[in-house]
Amino acid sequence: MEWEYGIVPGVEHYGCMIDLLGLGGRLREAFRLVHSMPMEPNAAVWRTLLGACRMHNDLELAEEGA
């Protein structure tokens, strides 16, 4: 995004990626993305990740995220 279009990803962009990864069942990858974000994750990002954990019954990751 940055190199081709000059758009710096914001927290909304990261939230969308976390949502897509979570819906696809790639919860560990989504969790790593939350921790590698260059900004502080907001409540919506955490809610998205926890919702994906609930959908996929991953209590262990949900506890780690909470």
UniProtKB/TrEMBL annotation:
KW Repeat (keyword) present: yes
A GO term, aspect molecular function: RNA binding
UniProtKB keywords: Repeat
Pfam families in the cross-refs: PPR
GO BP: RNA modification
Keyword Repeat: yes
PANTHER family the record matches: PENTATRICOPEPTIDE REPEAT-CONTAINING PROTEIN, REPEAT (TPR)-LIKE SUPERFAMILY PROTEIN, PUTATIVE-RELATED
Protein name: Pentatricopeptide repeat-containing protein
Organism ancestry: Eukaryota, Viridiplantae, Streptophyta, Embryophyta, Tracheophyta
